[in-house]
Design goal:
Strand content: under 5%
Radius of gyration: 21 Å
Distance between the termini: 28 Å
Number of domains: 1
Helix content: over 70%
Shape: elongated
Number of strands: 0
Largest sheet: none
Structural class: mainly alpha
Length: 86
């Protein structure tokens, strides 16, 4: 499991993610060519804000998943040890 989590070659989101990313890049390129300097600066700020939001969501999802997996592992250990559940 750890090896799978650390596999940098494994892409998250699959085809749907890559398709959406291609659309985002295409729209960004089109807008860059149509906007003036001020518009391009705003587009860059918008892209940065979306990127930051995506990182926060990914980190929170990972943290939640990790905590749930840890609690599940503890439940299994308690069950296997025959300890009373609290």
């Amino acid at each position: 499991m750890v090896e799978r989590l650390l596999d940098g070659e494994r892409q998250l989101g699959g085809e749907a993610y890559h398709s959406s990313m291609a659309q985002i890049l295409e729209a960004t390129d089109t807008l860059i060519n149509r906007l003036d300097d001020v518009g391009r600066q705003w587009l860059e700020k918008l892209g940065d804000a979306y990127g930051q939001r995506e990182r926060v969501v990914m980190e929170a999802a990972f943290r939640e998943g990790f905590c749930q997996a840890t609690l599940l592992a503890l439940d299994v250990l308690v069950y296997q040890a025959g300890l009373p559940e609290e």
